[in-house]
Amino acid sequence: MPLSLLAPPLCWACGRAARPLEALCLACRAALRWLPSDPIALEGITAWAPLAYEGPARALVAGLKFRAARRLAEQLAAPIVARAPPSLLEEAVLVPVPIERARLRRRGFNQASLLASAIARRTGLPLEHALVCLPGRRPQTGRPRGERLAGMRGRFALRGGARPPPRPLLVDDVITTGATLAACAAVLRDAGSRRVGALAYARTLGR
Fold first, then answer.
1. What CA–CA distance (Å, rounded) separates 120 from 24?
2. β-pair type (40-42, 156-158)
3. Which of 56, 126, 172, 189 has its C-alpha lying 20 to 30 A from 94's C-alpha?
């Protein structure tokens, strides 16, 4: 007998029983706030996410990022691929937003890389780890938007030996101020990329 029949999976948002292979229960799935299908312009980048960064969506991101539930990457990738604007995916190369090497050692993974890999498996799009995150910067969480934008300048660089894709599509778990995406996009444009887009699982409302 499958283990899930003896001990049903629990919802990552509320802790109630969920269906097998589902990260959220039916009630929390119904509580997800879906965003419009049209991309937005954010810091000069065409960006899109299927969900608002709140409630159950926020719980899934936290489960992946802070509780090392790597299998959630597939759950986050599914609505991205199902609803992403086709024009954003066309001829794109997925480029995950990198994290600092020290943080990567502590956490053991980069959630953006896991998400990008899951998207690549579902779409067949190529994936390239074209960027690196430089050390020695202050954490951005909780800082005002202006400070985040200023603090991200110079934080990223092209990976040694990497060639920037003509149409990179940055992948991250969440879009907040757009400061991280803008800093990554600047590096790619300076290296020769023509058009930079961005995908995420969720977006802070008002962005």
1. 23
2. unpaired
3. 56
Dihedral angle computed from the Cα positions of residues 189, 118, 201 and 170, in that order, rounded to the nearest 10 degrees: 0
In this structure, the number of other CB atoms found within 10 A of the CB of residue 196 comes to 25
Token output for 66: 């802070």
DSSP 8-state symbol, 46: E
CB 175 within 8 A of CB 207: yes
Vertex 27: Cα angle to 21 and 33 (nearest 5): 95
What pLDDT is recorded for position 1? 35
Alpha helices in the chain (DSSP H): 3-6, 26-31, 55-66, 72-83, 86-89, 101-107, 111-123, 145-152, 179-190
pLDDT in tens, 23-63: 999 999 999 999 999 999 998 899 999 999 999 999 999 99
Specify the residue for token string 């994936």.
127
The string of pLDDT tens digits covering residues 72-127 is: 999 999 999 999 999 999 999 999 999 999 989 999 999 999 999 999 999 999 99
As given in the structure block, the two tokens for residue 122 are: 């579902």
Q: Rounded to the nearest 5 degrees, what angle is found at the Cα of 204, between the Cα atoms of 116 and 87? A: 50
Q: What's residue 145's pLDDT?
A: 53
